């Protein structure tokens, strides 16, 4: 692939990753409430989910999901249910009791990073729209009839994921910095959880109402 194509691919990927969506809000919520480390771990979990989509697309599984209304619907409903579940948990945390800020802060920091990683991973991997995105976006940068199309797809997909990890880490750092500048007030953090939770419920409902590509 010519150099200018690589540059265009990277630039387009960065711009796409700067657009807020479920993944970005998930990272921001964790970074603002629990610090940069939690935000970065959330970003890594999401990147791991992207790697699954890239590998699936490279071997044709994502194409099968895109072509099969049943497969798409199964994955769609799993993703929608999980997004609503995450949203409800955030909303409950945001509307939770008024316990002492110190106790609530300690509870926040004790949330296992492995749990944050797992939630980020599931948020991404259960979203069929991510699979469809890779199928629609990456092939545009592969020459038709290329003898190494699967390998090229895999390389470009992993490059996109690497770049998205850098951008998402930036989101985590920015959110944690903003929280510190604001004094990390517990009321503000609960408000953030409430807003993020409502957004996740909205994302889940929107995903549930999405039609399979075959029916569009």
TrEMBL record:
One of its GO terms (cellular component) is plasma membrane. InterPro entries: LeuE-type. The keyword Cell membrane applies. GO terms for molecular function: amino acid transmembrane transporter activity. Keywords: Cell membrane, Membrane, Transmembrane, Transmembrane helix. It is a multi-pass membrane protein. Its main location: membrane. The chain crosses the membrane at residues 6-28, 40-65, 77-100, 121-142, 154-179, 191-209. It is found in: Cell membrane. It holds the Pfam family LysE. The keyword Methyltransferase does not apply. It comes from the Bacteria. This is Lysine transporter LysE. It comes from Simplicispira suum.
């Amino acid at each position: 692939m010519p150099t200018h194509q690589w540059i265009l691919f990277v630039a387009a990927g960065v711009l796409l990753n700067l657009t807020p969506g479920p993944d970005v809000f998930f990272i921001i919520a964790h970074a603002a409430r629990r610090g940069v480390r939690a935000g970065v771990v959330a970003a890594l979990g999401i990147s791991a989910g992207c790697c699954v989509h890239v590998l699936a697309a490279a071997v044709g599984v994502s194409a099968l999901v895109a072509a099969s209304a049943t497969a798409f619907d199964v994955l769609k409903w799993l993703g929608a249910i999980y997004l609503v579940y995450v949203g409800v948990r955030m909303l409950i945390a945001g509307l939770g009791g008024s316990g002492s800020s110190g106790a609530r802060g300690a509870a926040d920091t004790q949330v296992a990073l492995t749990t944050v990683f797992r939630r980020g991973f599931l948020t991404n991997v259960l979203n069929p729209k991510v699979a469809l995105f890779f199928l629609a976006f990456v092939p545009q940068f592969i020459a038709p009839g290329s003898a190494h199309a699967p390998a090229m797809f895999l390389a470009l997909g992993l490059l996109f994921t690497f770049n998205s990890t850098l951008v998402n880490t930036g989101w985590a750092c920015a959110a944690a910095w903003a929280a510190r500048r604001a004094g990390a007030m517990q009321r503000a953090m609960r408000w953030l959880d409430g807003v993020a939770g409502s957004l996740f419920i909205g994302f889940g409902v929107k995903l549930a109402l999405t039609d399979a590509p075959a029916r569009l």
